[in-house]
Amino acid sequence: MEECKLESLSVEPGQKVACIWLQVSVLERQIFDFLGYQWAPILANFIHIIIVILGLFGTIQYRPRYITGYAVWLVLWVTWNVFVICFYLEAGDLSKETDLILTFNISMHRSWWMENGPGCTVTSVTPAPDWAPEDHRYITVSGCFLEYQYIEVAHSSLQIFLALAGFIYACYVVKCITEEEDSFDFIGGFDSYGYQGPQKTSHLQLQPMYMSK
Q1: For residues 114 and 151, what is the distance between their CA atoms, to the nearest angstrom?
Q2: 99 — phi, psi (to 5°)?
Q3: What is the domain count for the chain?
Q4: What parts of the sequence cross the membrane (predicted)?
Q5: Is 105 left (phi over 0), alpha (psi -120 to 50) or beta?
Q6: What's the pLDDT tens digit per position in 11-24?
């Protein structure tokens, strides 16, 4: 079995590339969520970016608490992305057409990809229905090569894959740091052959003292 060593936990170039790719994927998703005013995903993405930075800091500085917190967050992150997938695929009672959960029910905005997906053609419908708000336009979208819900599902699936890889690595790092700390021996700290202070003798030795005249 391969032995864990703290020296092997330094951030290698390949790990740096993986961290950069992880952050870029989240930032790309954050941009399009901003364009679609998807407030719940915006908040989740922001928290994820912060915790990824803390997890990287914990790996560099050998802080198992930071890495453990990062691993716990990844479980929540996977859960969130599974919910997003179920939302766009309308699993159970969820509906992407009627529910505005992702905008906290404060706006009628949808995914940015709904109107701007590959090959999509947007046509304004006039006159608009009576129930449509005055500051919103009523449109139809057609000709999309890939429906917007599948693009959102692909984004969430990528995040789940990256989160699972990060969780495995985080558990490995915490295991290595813990084993190294358990086997570490402070020099002279608990050594039975360490320094011992002077001991008192059972009797004093008297020496003659001469005085000159």
Answers
A1: 9
A2: -85, 140
A3: 1
A4: 39-58, 70-91, 156-174
A5: left
A6: 555 556 667 777 88
> Does residue 191 belong to any structural domain of this protein?
no
Going by C-alpha positions, the residue among 112, 121, 97, 124 that lies closest to residue 148 is 112
How many helices (H) and strands (E) in the chain? 5, 2
Rounded-to-integer distance, Cα 130 and Cα 108, Å:
16
The answer as to whether 133 is a domain residue is no
**Which residue in this structure is represented by tokens 């700290």?**
189
Nearest to residue 149, comparing CAs of 106, 193, 113, 123? 113
Q: How far apart are CA 112 and CA 149, in angstroms?
A: 10
**Band (141; pLDDT cuts 50, 70, 90):** confident
Instruction: Give the Cα-Cα-Cα angle 104, 105, 111 (nearest 5 degrees).
Output: 80
Average pLDDT on 42-53 reads 93
Q: Which two tokens stand for residue 100?
A: 């505005």
In a domain, 40, yes or no: yes
Amino acid identity, position 73? W
* Helix (H) or strand (E) run with residue 14 in it: helix 13-35
Q: How far apart, in whole angstroms, are the C-alpha atoms of residue 49 and residue 202?
A: 69
Provide the residue range defining the domain that includes 176: 10-108+147-182
CA distance 73 to 53: 12
The CA dihedral of 52, 57, 62, 64, to the nearest 10 degrees, is: -40
